[in-house]
Design a protein that fits this description.
The complex is a heterodimer of chains A (115) and B (115).
Chain A (H helix, E strand, L loop, with lengths): L2 E3 L4 E5 L4 E3 L2 E3 L4 E8 L5 E7 L5 E3 L5 E5 L4 E6 L8 E9 L8 E2 L3 E6 L1
Parallel strand pairs in A: 2-12
Antiparallel strand pairs in A: 1-4, 3-9, 5-6, 5-10, 7-8, 8-9, 10-11, 10-12
Chain B lengths: L4 E3 L2 E4 L5 E6 L6 E7 L6 E7 L2 E5 L7 E4 L6 E5 L8 E8 L9 E2 L3 E5 L1
Parallel strand pairs in B: 2-11
Antiparallel strand pairs in B: 1-3, 3-8, 4-5, 4-9, 5-6, 7-8, 9-10, 9-11
Classes of the chains: A mainly beta (115), B mainly beta (115).
Chain lengths: 115, 115
Amino acid sequence: AQSVTQLGSHVSVSEGALVLLRCNYSSSVPPYLFWYVQYPNQGLQLLLKYTTGATLVKGINGFEAEFKKSETSFHLTKPSAHMSDAAEYFCAVSERNFGNEKLTFGTGTRLTIIP
Amino acid sequence: DTGVSQDPRHKITKRGQNVTFRCDPISEHNRLYWYRQTLGQGPEFLTYFQNEAQLEKSRLLSDRFSAERPKGSFSTLEIQRTEQGDSAMYLCASSLVTGGADEQFFGPGTRLTVL
């Protein structure tokens, strides 16, 4: 079974400050890891994903995440927050197989940007 | 590419009524997923299709729920004898199977309120 824990349901940062959203996962097999963003009244949008290879993954809008197997973590960062980053962020895991790649999501972190 | 669309966007119904939601995936995508998202939670997997075949159903999907994907194109999710606990956002996602970590593209969701 797989699971995701996102620490902090609400995170507030000042505009221009570092964004750090935490995600820890549990999986019985090597995982695929994802970060999705959800803006109000819109569908989930993929920010980035980790499959294999380089553990530092770069995504859209200046976000990046680092896969740390020893810590079972996949934290999301952005060096400088922008007002448009205000949204809800979900970390998700899926198992490596060629069948059902259903996503297991965390409970989400709502990011607020302070002007 | 017009994205994944869902209809209706909002549905209010009385307890005991039946409701049906529709999802139109991205046209060339062969895999279609349904998820449910309740307030303060991340999306939870309900079921998925590969073309027209329904290959897995979550234990969350009671016998009051039925999903179809005739001809492997659009999909419908029907809930019979709705209960207040069915109130949630129902999300549809589609993907093109390429061999691993395929990106799931999400629709905007159908928000169901059961009175």
